[in-house]
Amino acid sequence: MLTEAPLRVRTGVGLALRIRARGGRTEAFVDGSPVVDVTDTHHTRGRIGLNVFGGRAAYQDTLVTAL
């Protein structure tokens, strides 16, 4: 775990999540607003995965693009 960002999510309400990873920097945006900006100098390469901790979620229209 690199960081946490408190976010109130209501049941039945969809949110747009965008994650941008470049080198060791990871940024996350919810509905266009930045919620995470963290740098990890140890893990600068890897794979992409989606997960939910302690709850349930559905992913729709998932897209991965190379930068």
Fold and architecture overview:
This protein has no helices and three strands. It is mainly beta. Strands 1-2-3 form a three-stranded antiparallel β-sheet, with no helix packed on it. The relative contact order is 0.20.
Task: Give the tags.
mainly beta; 67 residues; 3-stranded antiparallel beta sheet; 3 strands
| Overall geometric form | globular
User: What proportion of the residues form beta strands (DSSP E)?
Assistant: 25-35%
Radius of gyration: 13 Å
Report the count of strand segments. Answer: 3
Query: How many separate helices?
Result: 0
| CA(first)-CA(last) distance | 24 Å
Average pLDDT over all residues: 87
Proportion of helical residues: under 10%
**What is the multimeric organization of the chains shown?**
single chain
Strand order of the largest sheet: 1-2-3
Class computed from helices, strands and strand pairing? mainly beta
Report low-confidence residues grouped into runs of 5 or more.
Answer: none
Order of helices and strands: EEE
Biggest sheet: strands, sense, closure? 3 strands, antiparallel
Short structural summary:
It is built from no helices and three strands. With 67 residues, the protein is mainly β. It is globular and about 35 Å long.
Layout of helices and strands:
Elements: E1 17-22, E2 25-30, E3 33-39
Antiparallel strand pairs: 1-2, 2-3
